[in-house]
Amino acid sequence: MDQIALEGMEFFAFHGYYDEEQRIGNKYGVDLFIRTDLLAAGASDKLDNTVNYEVLYRLIAEEMRAPARLLEHVAHRVLDRVMAELPHVQQVKISVSKFNPPLGGICHRARVTLKRKR
Predict the structure, then answer these.
(1) What's its catalytic activity (predicted)?
(2) Domain residues for 50?
């Protein structure tokens, strides 16, 4: 199986366990990796034979706009959307990071990674 990756996406969003986090927002990072068959796209050079990166980005951006308490929940929603809307995708892996999480000390980011297969 072949891979498409969108790495280093950044969003300002209103996720967080604490009410204050949901009010003031924070910067988040997202890395997405999908596994699908890219043979036809490689041979044809046609967008219809692959996964459109813009579609993937739009799905992620829409889910990042919807507030959540947990990074796990945001990542789970993205996995659900990708699997539901792109049936030829065989596997999805996503990492969602919160920059400078409120832990009472220095921490550059907190990250969760989820993976799903058909």
Answers:
(1) 7,8-dihydroneopterin = 6-hydroxymethyl-7,8-dihydropterin + glycolaldehyde
(2) 2-117
Q: What is the pTM of this model?
A: 0.95
Our count of domains for the chain comes to 1
CATH code: domain of residue 17: 3.30.1130.10
Separation CA 64–CA 36 (nearest Å) = 24
Kindly list the catalytic residues: 98
Which pLDDT tens digit goes with each residue over 10-57?
999 999 999 999 999 999 999 999 999 999 999 999 999 999 999 999
The 3-state secondary structure of 70-110 reads CHHHHHHHHHHHHHHHCCCCCEEEEEEEEECCCCCCCCCEE
Sign (positive/negative) of CA torsion 117, 33, 68, 64?
Answer: negative
Distance in angstroms (rounded) separating the CA atoms of residues 80 and 106: 33
